[in-house]
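#onboarding

Welcome to the new folks! Below is a worked example of what a typical request in this channel looks like: someone posts a single protein sequence, and someone else replies with the predicted structure as tokens. Don't worry about understanding the tokens yet, we'll cover that in week two.

Example request:
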Amino acid sequence: MANIKQLQMWNSICADARISVSKSLFGLRTTAVYNPTNSVIDAQTIEMSPADGEQLNRILSTNREKLVQAIGNFRPKPIVNGNYMAEVCTSRDKAFLAILLHQFARMSYEPVTDVLTFEGDEARAVGQMF
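Example response:
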């Protein structure tokens, strides 16, 4: 699990009206909650190979109506020090998912997509990849 506050997409998550952010334990712990289902959001980062990263980028660029079809059986294999990294925030009930894909360039991970959010069946379909 990644610290949600350390993600590059943290500001986008905070700005989303569907998400509530609360701090506890003297401000040391931050919790994000998907409001429609009152489900806590967990964060993770997944590093992957150039081939898997390019495939994921193509999938995320696909028209929403063809998303499930584009995903098919694709499951990126996590690797250490990958060329691509996905920041993924998923509600525990799988009803919400946010993703930001990065590529390693100029000695750091640079975003190659906007922060994309999915709800309901789309979130479940995208979440199955991870």
